[in-house]
Amino acid sequence: MDNPAGVIVGYWGFRARVGPIRHLLAFCGIPFTNRSYIDSSDWFDKDKKELEFDFPNLPYLIDEEKKITQTKAILKYIALKANKRELIGDTDDKYIQVETALYALDDLRNALYSVIWTSGDFVAEKEAAFTKGEVKEKLDVVNKALTGKEWITGFFSIADFMLFEIIDLINDMDPARLEPYPSFVHHYERFLEFPQTKAHRESLGFVKKWFPPGKTQWNSP
Predict the structure, then answer these.
(1) pLDDT (tens digit per residue) in 7-63
(2) Residues 78, 28: contact at Cβ < 8 Å?
(3) What is the DSSP letter of 118?
């Protein structure tokens, strides 16, 4: 599975759902190149058809003959490639814990995205979401699971890469929203202490922009 030339990560020219993949590659010390699609036709009319994925989608990862789509599958592949099986759970019980956390975090991320991608009053909808809506409900669920632990499942896993991205999104969007959740802040600070995280976020491979220009009311001038 070794590929000294690194792997290719394909996604749009912004961050959104691909962040955990890039952070995990950096953490595992696996060199990678971003293939960013700025013109949508480069994906839809060309690579989506020509790269011969079983299930064409973005993000994707190409590692020599391996061609993988779907974020969770990519995260698991990276952990196995790096010989870090513990990141996906090295027992059946731990594996199920990681899977459960990943899907719960997916729900939280999707709830956040529904607010960010609104065509209505973003400020009003954000306030409602964080104080009484679906976002608050799912934040409270994840916070309860995290409280008293260093990591979301009780051990460090790929789920923590997804949680970090969610916290980073909230921190960029409105850091005051993290104040009621000290466990989130502590998780965020611990993750930022990893030398690999710091190096990645200072590298040319780090994409800061969350969403495409002109498509969302926040982070999209």
Answers:
(1) 999 999 999 999 999 999 999 999 999 999 999 999 999 999 999 999 999 999 999
(2) yes
(3) -
125-145 as b/e: b if 16+ CB within 10 A: bbeebbeebbbbebbeebeeb
Q: Which residue has the higher pLDDT, 5 or 160?
A: 160
Please give the model's pTM, rounded to 2 decimal places.
0.95
| DSSP notation for 123-156 | HHHHHHHHHTSHHHHHHHHHHHHHTT-SSTTSS-
Residue 67's nearest CA partner among 76, 75, 56 is 56
Q: Letter for the amino acid at 28?
A: C
> Is residue 147 a part of any domain in this protein?
yes
Decide if 133 is inside a domain: yes
Q: φ and ψ at 57, to 5 degrees? A: -170, 165
Q: What CA–CA distance (Å, rounded) separates 36 from 57?
A: 13
Q: Please write the tens of the pLDDT for every residue from 126-151.
A: 999 999 999 999 999 999 999 999 99
When divided into structural domains, the chain yields a total of 1
Burial 147-170 (b: 16+ CB within 10 A, else e): eeeebbbebbbbbbbbbbbbbbbb
200 within a domain of the structure (yes/no):
no
Identify whether 154 is part of a domain: yes
Q: For residue 155, what is the domain's CATH number? A: 1.20.1050.10
- In which domain, by residue range, is 185 found? 86-193
DSSP designation for 17: G
